[in-house]
Amino acid sequence: MSVPQNYYVIETETLSKRYGRKLALDRLDLRIPRGRIHAIVGANGAGKSTLFRVLLGFLPQTAGQARVLGRDSRKLTPGDRERIGFVNEEHTLPGWMKVSAVTAMHRRLYSRWNEAAFRGVLDHYHVLPEQKVGQLSRGERAGFNLALALAQRPELLVLDEPTLGLDVVAKRAFLESLMYSNAADECTVIYCSHQMEEIERVADNLIILERGQLKNMSAPDDFCARVTHWVADMPFKGPEPAAVPGLLEVQRLDGLHHYLVLDQDERFGDFLRTHGARSVQSMQVSLDRAVNSFLAKNHAAPQALASASA
């Protein structure tokens, strides 16, 4: 089936980026369709920040192609950049300027400025026009930054660890500002975070990167369903870990063997029984545990798991 033109907001083909001997992006093929909220997760060093810098044209790739909104990322024009919103973890805004002055500057810079979207987000926060940006709390700066980005009326909004360092109340305010903003519904959101409770709450699509490669692209619930927790009453040592199909992690607790496995059905229970299990029970796991176990396994032994197809 043919894909309509401009169906993807982000496309990479065999995208690679090398820093000396280190390969940060390894022939990455990634296609993100328009619409919805797409979460990108990965361990430290997975290549997420490098990917964003290449996509936004801040860093040249070593090999391969990267396109954003149909444009080569190395050739983004000011008009293209106006269609892309970006919020990073530092919430870098000029601290010496007043909120009103920063807002006025952005109104002049962005021809598609949406005042209703700006007010709709900023009203979640107690930010006064006469305050200097440097006087705002970290949570207030995060909200102000999000309001500015959504007021651009972007087609693509990249949020790189936007809640890092925020307290629980500020995180909740930020997520609710994003989820209930009409402006956010009109663009494609790329959300990068280590906080699985945030991903579970906001994301429609879960993208997992490890060592610069795509390891999973699916709905969060679909990925979670791939990981199961098996508890076996095993009177003996049990099978060697290398012989356990789909093994992510194994623990022995209170005399019981606990297996976390990937892509295993009821036949895994039969496998455990053939190795001496007197009783077997399976259960689903949380997204947080599923993702973290998957990442730990990939990070320790990247050859042990095959990439899931997008």
Question: Would you write up a description of this structure?
Answer:
The chain has 310 residues and is an alpha/beta fold. It folds into two domains: 8-218, Rossmann fold (3-Layer(aba) Sandwich), CATH 3.40.50; 222-304, Alpha-Beta Plaits (2-Layer Sandwich). It is 32% helix and 29% strand. It contains eleven helices and 14 strands. The chain has helices at residues 48-55, 78-82, 99-109, 115-122, 138-151, 168-179, 182-185, 196-202, 220-226, 267-274, 287-300; strands at residues 8-19, 22-33, 37-41, 63-68, 71-72, 84-87, 156-160, 188-192, 205-210, 213-218, 227-233, 247-253, 256-262, 279-284. A six-stranded mixed sheet has the order 6-7-8-3-9-10, sandwiched between helices. A hairpin with a 2-residue loop joins β9 and β10. The longest helix has 14 residues, at 138-151. It is elongated. Mean pLDDT is 91; it is low at 302-310.
Summarize the structure.
The chain has 310 residues and is α/β, with parallel strands linked by helices.
